[in-house]
Structure prediction request, 474 residues.
Amino acid sequence: MVSRVIPVEPFELIVFGATGDLARKKILPALWRRFRAGQMPEGARVIGAARTELDTDGWRRMVAEAIGPAEGLDAFLERLAYVTLDATGEAGWPELRAACGAPEVRAVYFSVAPALFAPLAERVRAHGLADGETRVVVEKPFGHDLASARALNAALAAQFSEDQIYRIDHYLGKETVQNLMAVRFGNMLFEPLWNAQYVDHIQITVAEQVGVAGRAEYYDHAGAMRDMVQNHLMQLLCLTAMEPPARFEPGAVRDEKLKVIRALEPPRWLVRGQYGAGQGQAAYVDDVGAPASGTETFVALRAEVGNWRWVGTPFYLRTGKRLSARSSEIAVVFKDTPHSIFGIDAGAHRNILAIQLQPNEGMKLWMTIKEPGPGGMRLLDVPLDMTFAETLGPEAELIADAYERLIMDVIRGNQTLFMRGDEVEAAWAWTDAAIAGFEAAGERPEVYPAGSDGPRGAERMMARDQRLWREIAG
Prediction:
C-alpha cells in the first residue's frame, strides 16, 4: 500500500462560509474522502455556518449534490449539521453554540472573505467556541499588501495565539511538494549538488488554461502578482531553495523558509502580460468588463537568493491565465559537464529534475545515455520516471489530495505545511516592492493571445540570459 490511514482524535470542525464555492468544491468533498478512508472517527462532526437560510437537511442535500452519488454517503451526511448565522452580528450565534459539543479537538475554518476574519474571530471567542486548543484555519488571500496582512495578523492575534492559526496554501498539501523535501533531504544523491556550483538555474511555472472564471471583481484588484506569486510561487521557491532544517517539525521548517524570503533580491527582470482574445476565448478586458484595465494576468520574473548556497543562480518564475496548457512544475536545471569527451553533440544535453505538481503529480530525472544501436556514440536524453499515476497504478488513487491532507494536519495540530505570520509579512514586503517598481514605470501589461505560452517579453527575458523556458505541457 502507498497510503496508510493514521487515526486522528474525535473532532468538531465548524466551517464558516459553508454554502460557498470553496466549501462545496474542496472542503466538504475532502472530508467525505477522509470519512470514506476511515479517518473520521466516531464522534467527529462537521457544522456548517453561513448566512444562507437553510436547515440541516437542506445543507445535507447541497453537500450530497456537490459530492455526487456514492456508496456510504448517507452515513457521512449524518455527521453534518447546519446553522444560519450572521458573521458580523449576533444572529445565529447562540444556535451555533448549542449545536456544538465538547470535542477533544475543535477547529474553525474561515472559508470566507478576509474582511470577515476579524469579526468572526471576535465572535468565536465571545461565544465560548475558542479555548487554548481551538485551531482556526484561514484561506488566502491573506491581505492585499503588507499593511493589510499586518492588520489581519493583528486581528487574529488578538483572539488566538500563533500556534492556533493555520494559514492554508493548498499547494503545500500536494504530494509532490512534500516529496520535493523528501528527495532533497532524504537522498545523499541530491543535496550535495543542490547549490550554485552545480545548478545552472531553476524554473518554477504555474500555468492555467482558465480565465478569471467568476472571480472578475477580485482578480481585477489583485492581478497575477498578488494572486499567485506572493503565495503559491513564493512557497514553491522557498521549499526549493531553503537550507536543511534541523528536524522536520513546524518551527524548524518555517524558520528556513523565512530565511529564503528575507534573502531574496529584488527581481532583476519582471514581465507583465494580459491575455487577449484567441482560440475562441474572449480577452481579459471583456471578461472583467473593464476595457481600460491594466491588471496583469501573467507574470514572469528573474529572482536571486542572496546567500552562499545560491549566489548567482537565477530562479525564473512565471504564472499566467489562458495559457496553452494547465501545468505546475519546478525544474532544477543542472550545469553542463565541465568537459565533454563526446564532441559538439554533448552540449545540448543536461540533467534536469522536473517536479510536476499538476495535472499529473510526479518527478522525472532526465539523464543522458548512449542511443542504442551501432553507428558511434550518439547521446540521448531519457527520463527516470516517477509519475505517480504510472508508477503506482491504481494505488495512486489512494493518495490524499491537498485539502484532505491539510485538514487532517489541522486536526493533528501539525503546522509544518502552513504559513506563519512573519513569513506572510516577509512575502508581502518583497511583493509590494516589486509591484511598486512596475507601477512607477507606468507600463501597461503586454497583450498575449489566449491559448499561447504568454507574452514575447517573457521569451526575451530568457534570451537575454541565453536560456529558454521549458515547454508548458499538461
